[in-house]
Design a protein that fits this description.
The longest helix is centred in the first third of the chain and has 18 residues. Strands 6-5-4-3-2-1-8-7 form an eight-stranded parallel β-sheet. The protein is globular. With 280 residues, the protein is of the alpha/beta class. 41% of the residues lie in helices and 12% in strands. It contains ten helices and eight strands.
């Protein structure tokens, strides 16, 4: 069974480094780059710059999901993301991922040109999301694990065994998708680093990320600039490239499929040089 990623990247049989997903937050309050790209022209320019730097996918979000954040209305989210998706689509055939957990926002995003729906709730927050996605078999779906909601997820996260609990969670979600008519070949799995996790949970998930390969599906890892880096080495958000690259190295070693990052150029260069060393 061919995965939908093979259709999105038809010339990608010989890929030796992870797919790089560039982050574009069109929000006033994202943890790392809130308010930087809220302006339409600035957002489009940033996306095109990431493409120039070597991004393979652009992931666009119109609602912050940082710890403590509050949801925005569907209408506001649509107004933020859809014009930008349409404009990027005029300039590039690059796969566009829309980071949303709302069915109507996802539907409008797909109409504007999005190829992937990246849902931090794994289709749990909006009961209409699965039905809408079943109508669009050409669209890939990212299912992410999160304990709680963005508003409360870091208040007191607790696991007996984070890996086992996540594996059980994804098994249940994949069954749900099957029942809803969403083919497994469309699904990408994201363990949700920093989403309702303690430091030890995040480190364990990154260390043993290959455990998620048991599902035979692509794995997405998003740890760029996240606060667990600050817990290892106290640092401001913009000072966490080194910590991000440590995760990028681990993803390369474990043969992970997709890395979701803010800084495309250094991550790309890091991976190309690391790959050259290993293949020389």
């Amino acid at each position: 069974m061919h995965h939908i990623l093979e259709r999105i990247f038809p010339d990608d049989q010989q890929r030796q480094i992870p797919i790089l997903m560039g982050i574009l937050n069109i929000t006033p309050d994202s943890f790392s780059d809130g308010n930087q790209f809220l302006d339409f022209d600035t957002a489009v320019e940033h996306a095109l710059n990431m493409i120039k730097d070597g991004a393979d996918i652009i992931d666009i979000g119109g609602e912050s999901t940082r710890p403590g954040s509050l949801p925005v209305s569907e209408q506001e989210e649509i107004l933020r993301v859809c014009p930008v998706i349409s404009e990027i689509r005029k300039h590039s055939h690059i796969p566009i991922s829309l980071d949303t957990n709302k069915a109507d926002v996802a539907r409008k995003g797909i109409e504007a040109g999005a190829n992937i729906i990246n849902d931090i709730s794994a289709l749990r927050f909006d009961t209409g999301m699965a039905d809408m996605l079943a109508e669009h078999p050409e669209v890939a779906v990212v299912l992410m694990h999160m304990q709680g909601t963005p508003e409360n997820m870091q208040e007191n996260p607790k696991y007996d065994d984070v890996l086992k609990e996540e594996l059980d969670f994804f098994e249940e979600r994949l069954h749900y998708c099957k029942v809803k008519g969403i083919d497994t070949s469309r699904i990408i799995i994201d363990p949700g680093i920093g989403f309702g996790k303690r430091l030890g949970d995040n480190l364990k998930l990154v260390r043993e990320i290959e455990r998620f390969k048991c599902f035979g599906l692509p794995i997405l890892l998003g740890a760029s600039r996240k606060s667990f880096i600050n817990l290892v080495d106290p640092s401001e958000v913009h000072e966490r490239l080194g910590g991000t690259l440590a995760v990028t190295a681990q993803a390369y070693m474990k043969n992970i499929d997709i890395l979701r990052v803010h800084d495309i150029q250094p991550n790309k260069q890091f991976l190309l040089v690391l790959n050259a060393i290993h293949k020389s």
